[in-house]
Amino acid sequence: MAKNSILDLLHDHAQNRGTDTACLVKADGKYGPVTWAKVWEDAQKVGKALIAAGVNAGDRVNVIGGTAYEWITTDLGILAAGAVTVPIYPSNLPDECQYVTDHSGARLVFAENADQVDKFIEKRDELGEVIKVVQWRGDKRVDDDWVVTMEAFLAAGESVTDAQLEERGATLGPDSLVTIIYTSGTTGRPKGVVLTHGNMLYEAKVTAEADVIRQDDIQLLFLPMAHVFAKVLEVGWLGTGHVLAFAESMNTIKPNLGEVRPTLMAGVPRVFEKFYAAVVEKGTSAEGLKRTLFVKAMELSVKNGECEERGDRLGLVESAMFGALKKAVFAKVGEGVLQILGGRMRVMISGGAPLSKKIAWFFRDAGIVVIEGYGMTESSAATTINLPHQNQIGTVGAALPGTTIKIASDGEILIKGPGVMREYWRNPEATAETLDEDGWLHTGDIGEIDPKTNAVRITDRKKDLIITAGGKNIAPTRIENLVKTHKLISQCVVHGDRRKFISALITIDPEQIDAFAQQSGIAGPYEKMCKDPKIRVEVERLISESNSELASYETIKKFEILDKDFSIETGELTAKLSVKRKVVSSKYGHMFDAFYEEKH
């Protein structure tokens, strides 16, 4: 029977496999099972309470909080009421929360705890559409009927009948909205990506058929639910019916791996970078022959990978040496990593940002399967993926069945298929810029397609948007403009694409430095004053001031002050005095690289 909504997938599991385990949730210090029937029941309770609160079919509802069982059942309950989930990152500041809530026209907000509730209390006068804020964990801190606990909210829904809820579910179809996910644009104002039940049903189908996720898998989930990557993992769970275990937090992934012993895990590159860094730290800290063998094994892993990319092979001597080192070094490394991962890991999926080939080769040679996929919020996340048995490192795999990818004349990757978004919410201009008349999604990424395997290789980014190693979308212009509001600072160029954090290069305004010098008692030529410790202390203070207005992942963690300002003559500025990012990145690339070097 054809499915009309992703809610139908949950209903099927509840009807046909009601007593089977759907989730593993930690309570009272240990993980326990939650059945499919219980998930359905909890979602139904939320749906009924939303109807009782006055939420109508098609209304938008915000959810802000950490990844947890309650997040999932709240999301599914919103869908049961025929409404639309609009997630918000828990790291968002009150202004950012207010923008998403106001722009989406949300009628109700689910917030994890009192700290998250406070963000909406602060902006209450600007949230006229919001009828209630529901706190799902902890005690209320305010004596205000606008804020209710989850218990009180659910109790109010008991008067709603099953028939009323079923009526809402019956209104859903493939064209109905399932979520609006706000993602940063280069201007800094987030755009709401409109995704439908049809988009998600397609994702559920193709991820199951690709055999990357299987029904007998146990997945450990820790990615933020406001990210489309986590959304497609939720949908993949509904599509296959495997077991979904929730990590307590990002800080407890390692112990939770040991408790859950998953067979499947998905994460952004930063997760795999941490595992890699820990292994490398241990290997390079060894003494004598052990260290020598480990370092040589790493060198040959990279060299072998580079040979593969060229369609070449290692020479006889190095090939024999690499074979021996695989047994002597990588086999032991693999055993150790597998135990850290719980001992049963079958496959790990990296997405959200590019994974270093060096790390992918390292894990591959250690017998750990890490596959990389590609997509964007606008394409419902899963667009291409490598397969465990066909993992072409350095690529993001071939397009999933039903999706077509082509390369435009300027090298831009274009996508067409059932996963492509409907539009940007209330933003026809941005929609027209991204979706052309023929339905092609313009990704802003530059790439190529391997003619032999159809795997996509991403080579560059067309737009300035930064995607960190943690998968966060960051608009650099907003940060730079904020820093440049301080009169002492002339230019600020932030960096962080595929990196762990944001760094910056700063130049000092030649007209302002003299005034500061007089006040501070420093003297000398411009170049010398730029390097004076007092200037650095002041810039540090100014950046800290700017950071206070940014979300944690947007803040500048490291910076350097240049001893010369940018100019048209030296090539860093255009005639309109705009910064040429590529020129700056090329000219000062060594300085940016130094920010991220890890000492072993």
What does the model show?
The radius of gyration is 26 Å and the shape is globular. α4 packs across α5. Among the domains are: 160 residues, 3-Layer(aba) Sandwich (Rossmann fold); 121 residues, GMP Synthetase, Chain A, domain 3, CATH 3.30.300.30. The model has no long low-confidence stretch (mean pLDDT 93). The strands form six sheets. A nine-stranded mixed beta sheet has the order 2-1-11-10-12-13-14-15-16, sandwiched between helices. A five-stranded parallel beta sheet has the order 4-3-5-6-7, sandwiched between helices. Strands 17-18-20-21 form a four-stranded antiparallel beta sheet, with no helix packed on it. β5, α5 and β6 form a beta-alpha-beta unit. The N and C termini lie far apart (57 Å). Helix content is 41%, strand content 20%. It has 600 residues and is α/β, with parallel strands linked by helices. One of its GO terms (cellular component) is membrane. This is Long-chain-fatty-acid--CoA ligase. It holds the Pfam family AMP-binding.
